[in-house]
Design brief:
With 701 residues, this protein is of the alpha/beta class. It has four domains: 54 residues, ADC-like domains (N-terminal domain of TfIIb), CATH 2.20.25.90; 257 residues, Rossmann fold; 212 residues, Dimethylsulfoxide Reductase, domain 2; 124 residues, Beta Barrel (Barwin-like endoglucanases), CATH 2.40.40.20. 29% of the residues lie in helices and 17% in strands. It is built from 26 helices and 27 strands. It has a six-stranded mixed beta sheet with strand order 5-4-17-16-15-6, covered by helices on one side. Helix 9 packs across helix 13.
Length: 701
């Protein structure tokens, strides 16, 4: 490269599954990106990037990139391939699909994707249109957030909440099921500012995370019991007359019935369920009800068990009960995603889905691929899944019940295509691997679920080697299938304009041109944004719904209640006798789900997969720090180094995820023990509803 190559700055956006959705400035010299840094103009990004994305150039120029289309030459799971041309790859894929459609019908083909990129065009644009036109099986994308989103919606109406920047004004903050310093680090400066101004910050989490260690107080709750705690808090608040009756009368429905319901959850009973002292529950209730402003940051960790949707619904009732929505710095935040009135139907074209098309839950991938349910009986998938197209996901590492998933991926009669940046656990099972672009190599638009800006990502450099973005690949596949509909060939610019087309006042002034000029534009909402200070909830009643008629019509309890985990010491004592430890697997600090695991600099910081247990649980098992142990239940096992620590509470084990299997000591990660069972609302994943035992690894093992 010539030293005279012009230097330019390109607007970019972090694409990863994180609330922060950072605004990035990419410095480019010629055709090479030389620096990735925070865009200083974006208030939430706040001048810094996380430990992962600050090293994004390592990802872009990683020597392990998939650089050309590949065809399998070894056994499935071996990861042995030979290069082929794009033309051969597209023809091979479409020839297989045409043959399967002729014999089994289009629903024998299953797309599988999630949030490997959060860009609107490359995550939910031409891919949806293409598979809708084909008539392929629909995928219910539930692996992360669907339970909490459904629960929050039942109470609040949509994923709208406290402006993250307003947390700086709070006097009390409850960080509930969130490791903010790891998975939402750009909220932390606002929390830190509140603390410096005298706010108390209380973390509710089974494990003493980095966040819990940095806050005023840590309440080590048992996994999956958050809904019971919320009901216990309401019991105290209501019975001691600490409610905001004016707010309740103006802006809520169902209070009288809620008051009756919470009588069944006195603090003593809730203490037995949650493992928290009765006095702590009473003190927390009084402090929350009498401190203004009071904010709750609840996150998706607390909804990954059977009753997760109802738990989030129940917690979401608390701000209305005490009038916290009135205050700058008060209320609750799960996600800001529902604040964006984007034109999703124009982007995804659900109108072309053939009537009667089935939907397969991504959580049940193992069941779908083997056509066998948890009881070992035929699962009834007709037609069977004969082809899998994976993009923006790594299901061989992240899906639950991996023993069954891997069994299904090994089927010789399953035709699997994986569009990827790297050779992941999933590409090892592919028949065809296609090279994918990174964020610096393609155009996209973004919303956030942790702030209120619409953002643009301009391509900073040309695609490396033969990599192509999702949008380009789906145009090629549409052509290969012989489809002629214009909507399958829309350009990226056209897609962007379509999704931005909205008459909603929040989108006023947000155009592709303004985004390209500025890099990001805040939604047209007031600052500070107080969405429910005077009610105006986007529920059917227009009020905060303590009593939900929409849930009642679905046959679901219309009032907040406590639904215990399926695998729990109280709800399932027989299973708990065999497997007495509740295992949680939150994200490792330097990974984001399974992203970044193959990046040497970050993996070296994480060192190796571990499981952490309390000394009280280690002693009877004769376990000491540094030993290699097996963590196991009826679904499977994985082997890791153990750490004995008081950061987890007795009865709880913690194994950070999501390590790729190929970087795990025995080729198994934590998801060999997790279940395909789904949540009460939203059909979400139950990763933390997981009883195991741990034993020293013997020679015979």
């Amino acid at each position: 490269m010539s030293s005279a190559s012009p230097r330019r700055i390109v607007h970019a956006t972090c694409p990863h599954d994180c609330p922060d959705t950072c605004a990035i400035a990419v410095t480019v010299e010629g055709d090479r990106a030389v620096k990735v840094e925070a865009n200083p103009a974006h208030s939430t990004t706040n001048g810094f990037l996380c430990a992962k994305v600050s090293k994004y150039l390592e990802r872009v120029y990683h020597p392990g990139r998939v650089t050309e289309p590949m065809r399998r030459v070894g056994a499935k799971g071996e990861g042995k391939f030979e290069p082929i041309s794009w033309e051969t790859a597209i023809q091979t894929i479409t020839d297989h699909w045409k043959a399967l459609i002729a014999e089994y019908g289009p629903q024998s083909i299953l797309p599988y994707s999630y949030a490997g990129t959060m860009g609107l065009l490359n995550s939910q644009g031409l891919d949806r249109r293409f598979f809708h036109r084909m008539g392929a099986s629909l995928l219910n994308r539930t692996i992360c957030a669907s339970a909490g989103a459904a629960g929050y919606k039942a109470t609040i109406g949509a994923s709208i909440g406290t402006d993250p920047e307003s947390f700086a004004a709070a006097r009390l903050i409850l960080i509930w099921g969130s490791n903010t310093l790891t998975s939402n680090v750009h909220l932390w400066p606002y929390i830190l500012k509140a603390m410096k101004q005298g706010a108390r910050v209380i973390t509710i989490d089974p494990y003493k995370t980095r966040t819990a260690a940095a806050t005023t107080e840590h309440l080590a709750i048992m996994p999956g019991t958050d809904g019971a705690l919320a009901l216990g808090l309401m019991h105290v608040i209501i019975n001691e007359g600490l409610t905001d009756q004016d707010y309740i009368e103006r802006y809520t429905i169902g209070f009288d019935r809620l008051r009756e319901r919470v009588q069944a959850y006195p603090p003593a009973q809730v203490a037995a369920i949650t493992g928290l002292p009765e006095a702590v529950i009473i003190k927390l209730a009084r402090e929350y009800a009498t401190t203004r402003p009071a904010a709750i940051r609840l996150n998706y960790g607390l909804q990954r068990h059977f009753g997760g949707g109802m738990a989030v619904r129940t917690i979401a009732c608390l701000p209305a009960l005490v009038g916290a929505w009135r205050d700058v710095g008060g209320g609750a935040l799960l996600s800001t995603s529902g604040t964006y009135p984007l034109n999703y139907p124009a982007l995804e074209r659900p109108d072309v889905i053939p009537p009667g098309t089935r939907t397969i839950n991504m959580i049940r991938l193992g069941e779908a691929l083997t056509n066998r349910n948890e009881q070992g009986l035929p699962a009834g998938y007709d037609p069977p899944v004969k082809a899998l197209y994976v993009y923006n996901s790594n299901p061989a590492a992240v899906a639950p019940d991996l023993a069954q998933v891997h069994e299904g991926l090994k089927r010789e009669d399953l035709f699997t295509v994986v569009h990827e940046q790297f050779f992941t656990d999933t590409t090892d099972y592919a028949d065809i691997v296609l090279p994918a672009t990174t964020q610096l190599e393609h155009f996209d638009l973004h919303k956030a679920y942790g702030h209120l800006s619409v953002m643009v990502n301009e391509p900073a450099i040309p695609p490396l080697a033969e990599a192509r973005p999702n949008t380009e690949v789906f145009r090629a596949l549409a052509k290969g299938m012989g489809y002629t509909e214009d909507y399958l060939f829309d350009s990226d610019d056209t897609l962007a304009r379509q999704v931005l087309t909205s008459n909603h006042p929040r989108m006023e002034g947000i155009t592709l041109e303004t985004l390209r000029e500025k890099g990001f534009v805040r939604l047209n909402v007031p600052q500070p944004f107080l969405p429910f200070a005077e009610g105006n909830f986007p529920t059917p009643s227009g009020k905060c719904e303590f009593y939900s008629e929409s849930l009642e019509r679905q046959g679901i309890d219309p009032l907040p209640t406590y639904l215990p985990p399926r695998e729990d010491r109280l709800s399932n004592p027989q299973l708990a006798e065999r497997y007495p430890l509740a295992l949680i697997s939150p994200p490792a600090h330097n990974f984001l789900n399974s992203s970044f695991v193959n990046q040497d600099s970050l993996r070296k910081v994480e060192k190796e997969p571990i499981v952490e247990i309390h000394p009280w649980d280690a002693a009877p098992r004769q376990i000491e720090t540094g030993m290699t142990v097996k963590v196991f239940n009826d679904r499977g096992e994985f082997r890791v180094r153990v750490k004995v620590s008081e950061r987890t509470r007795p009865g709880v084990a913690m194994a950070p995820g999501v390590w790729w299997n190929k970087f795990s000591p025995d080729g198994h990660n934590v998801n060999y023990t997790t279940s395909q069972a789904v949540t009460d609302l939203g059909e979400g994943a139950t990763f933390y509803d997981n009883l195991v035992d741990i034993a020293i690894l013997r020679t015979e093992d």
